[in-house]
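Aim 2 progress update. The chain analyzed this quarter is reproduced below.
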Amino acid sequence: MVSTLPVSLDDIRAAARRIAGRVTTTPMVQSASLGELAGVPVHLKLEHHQTTGSFKLRGATNAVLSLSPAQRLRGVVAASTGNHGRALAYAAKAEGAVATICMSRLVPENKVSEIRRLGADVRIVGVSQDEAQQEVDRLVREEGLVMVPPFDHPDVVAGQGTLGLEIIDDLPEAASVLVPLSGGGLAAGVAAAVKAISPTTKVIGLTMEKGAAMKASLDAGQPVQVEEVASLADSLGGGIGLDNRVTFAMCRELLDDVILLTETEIAAGMRHVYACERQVVEGAGAVGIAALLAGKIRGGGPIVAILSGANVDMGQHLRVINGTQPLYGEEGP
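Predicted structure tokens:
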């Protein structure tokens, strides 16, 4: 089944060899607090310890290394909600290439400033990922830059899939893997790796309740456009592209379930991981813990929750922790 999809286990293993030494093999730890709550062992994959603060470095590095020298010389470009832009800026700089990152005005300033610090050319365009993508398309068409998409590209998905290899290497008996879900690059890659090695392991996508483009698309049976709204899980915002070629088909085929979370539940996940695990995690990275706290994960264990990113504005993080952060479209916590 997996071999008929755009990215195979062989592709992911090749990506693991390609990026070795350029990304961090992140630790996985058992959570006593969540295990007690869930009644089964719960393990946390600390991917927010990755060099650029999120899993995105895996896919960006694999994609950049897969380009020819001539393509790297032209420069790379992408639309991003922040973490992919930071990863691509880092990966491009490491290989002597110039990155241009296009983002909407919804991207938090802490992510924008870090991308600039890495030497990328930053373009702020519109109020949605789709508008930022239009600028990417123009730069590809008019200036010859090479697009490295944040998720819908085989090399990016294969790079993200290396995270799934690490999870199954560390915990072959995993019953469920909880994966943050946005455009589907991480979910598709992790699911392709996990399902190929351990077909009975469930892979469950987690995303915010409002503006969940992949969930809406899966429900519709085809890629659809949704309104992009502000969220604590800002990294999960944006569409999947109406001409999606890779991640929609893979998520439709490989994910066992998609679970939606309210802003209140996401905030609770952020507070729990800080108070009980002593980890600073952005909203998108806390959705697995949020789902466990909300009682939305069923079945046996062990369970693995991926903490996908740590690139949170610290002012916002402190407000979430002390309960003073206004929640988008909801009553305060």
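The chain has a mean pLDDT of 93. The CA atoms of residues 93 and 102 lie 17 Å apart. These observations will guide the mutagenesis experiments scheduled for the next reporting period.
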